[in-house]
Amino acid sequence: MSLLFDAVLCLLLLAGALGVVATGAARAAVIAFIGYGLLLGLAWVRLAAVDVALTEIAIGSGISGVVLLRCVRALPATPKAPAPNPLLRPLAAMVSIAIAVALGAAVLALPEPAPSRAADVATALPATDLGNPVTGVLLVFRALDTLLEKVVLLLSLVGVWALSRDPACRGRPDPLSLEPAPAPSAFLARVLAPVGVLVGLYLLWAGADHPGGAFQSGAVLAAMGLLLVMGDQIRIPATQNRGLRLMLLAGPFGFLAVGFAGWATAGVFLGYPPGAEKAVIIAVEVAITLSIAVTLGLIVLGPPAGEERS
Amino acid sequence: MSLLASAFTLVFVAAGIGFFAAGTLGLVRLPGTLSRIHALTKADNVGLALIVLGLLPQAASVLDAAKMVAIWLLAQLASGAVAQVMAEAVMAEATLAEAKDAGDAAPPEESRP
Amino acid sequence: MADLLFAAATLLLLLAAAGLASLWWAGNDLDRMLAVQLLGAAGIAVLLLLTPAMGDSSLLDTALLLALLAALAACAYRAAFGPTRPKAGRPPAAPRP
């Protein structure tokens, strides 16, 4: 019976992907993409990757929906671009099909059983005091990847801010809505945001032993911040604010500092002090969560509009 | 005992799916966006409530059962507020169209050449 | 029992997909947003059904997150595409001569 469910889910995913691509209008395509992200979350659950499912639901159907809806608003209603070359569409379809076939062939060509380090992780996990192997891999066994990922996230914000007209990236990003928030949106923000912040902190706390963790928590907190902005409950922060910039840097540089301290305490870069592993890991996770939340929120809000003249 | 719990689950989950089906039918068949919002929020909340109620005996622990009830409450709150947001969008669009009609009927003086 | 729960989840998924498909061709963008909300509600129910069926209680957290973030899309839609209200006393669109 579970096979039938998986088959239906796969067919719906294909139909959703076709819907996103085949819908002519940009707005409808974005709405389809939000629904597609939701189905993808279900697919990750069926693959027993609950950590990924949480991320997909938070990013795929939450935050990227906000970004894409904003992009559609910024587009002109009737594009002035000339009609594309008639050869372009079949060519794009052929390239896409070729990539899909190649990926399918690669998956089918995997040796049976697939190569895995899962057993190594399971034997080494007790040393970290963590219960969730995904958090163990992210923050201990492959900590270098996670550190670089945080730096990449910061760099993507730098990329967004580089579009600012102000050379020093001061001022507030443009508002999400052109008019004051309607009463229902304000109500939604007031009621839902406190619950959402609680859920975000819960995911951070649960991440040590159950699915969840810094990225999921940061994404939820960023989404709640955006909800408050859309409901006119908080003002978009000015980007020259020193506290804000310190929050952006806390994750990557805090992690880097712990990494260098690892040489002194554990004799290796990114090593944790013996005996206090879990406490340090949790401190790093809190700093990373803060940075992820602020960075994701600011990426969605866009480049700052320059210093206000008063 | 376990048989009784299973029967309870099946009856309530089936009833919940029935409400989901009614909500979907209403969403598809009712005319006008406002009445569709009505069908969606009413039927889906009851449907979700019945499914949660039916699944309570299957919960692994009391904490899980409490979490399921919390999820239903959160969904109830969110979908009620979302219905208001969507309905406000419909109403604002209608008001705008009305104002536009009035504006077309009597063009303003200052824009005449 | 697990088989029956999977069957119920399949049924819900098909129902939501049917609603989505029929509104997709018939309605405007607001109706499509409503259909996505229906898919979100069905997704919560499906995740709740999968929790005992797969025997993994951490799936409840995904349902919690879905219940929380389903509202975000509607709010973002309203913020991005909400019609701007005409200013009081002035007609919204001045016809060009």
Description of the structure:
The complex is a heterotrimer of chains A (310), B (113) and C (97). Chain A is an all-alpha fold. Chain A is built from eleven helices and no strands. Helices cover 69% and strands 0% of the residues of chain A. In chain A, helix 1 (2-22) runs antiparallel to helix 2 (26-46) and helix 10 (242-265) runs antiparallel to helix 11. The longest helix of chain A has 25 residues, at 50-74. In chain B, 84% of the residues lie in helices and 0% in strands. Chain C has one domain. In chain C, 76% of the residues lie in helices and 0% in strands. The longest helix of chain C has 26 residues, at 29-54. Chains A and C meet through helix 1, helix 2, helix 3, helix 8 and helix 9 of A and helix 1, helix 2 and helix 3 of C.
Keywords:
heterotrimer; A: 310 residues; mainly alpha; globular; B: 113 residues; 3 helices; 0% strand; elongated; disordered C terminus; PhaG_MnhG_YufB (chain B)
Note the gap between the termini of chain A: 66 Å
Oligomer: heterotrimer
| Helix share, percent of chain B | over 70%
Strand content of chain A: under 5%
Structural class of chain B: mainly alpha
Q: Which pair of chains forms the biggest interface, and how many residues does each contribute?
A: B-C, 59 and 57 residues
The end-to-end distance of chain B, rounded to whole angstroms, is 86 Å
Average residue pLDDT of chain A = 87
The total of beta strands of chain A comes to 0
Q: Give me the strand/helix succession of chain A.
A: HHHHHHHHHHH
Give a quick account of the main beta sheet of chain B: strands, pairing sense, barrel closure. none
Mean pLDDT of chain B: 84
Uncertain regions spanning at least 5 consecutive residues of chain A: none
Percent of residues in helices of chain A: 55-70%
Q: What structural class do the secondary elements of chain A suggest?
A: mainly alpha
Poorly predicted ranges of chain B: 107-113
- As for the number of domains of chain B, it is 1
Radius of gyration of chain B: 22 Å
Beta-strand portion of chain B reads under 5%
Count the DSSP helices of chain B.
3
InterPro entries (chain B): PhaG_MnhG_YufB
Protein name (chain B): Na+/H+ antiporter subunit G
Pfam families (chain B): PhaG_MnhG_YufB
GO molecular function (chain B): sodium:proton antiporter activity
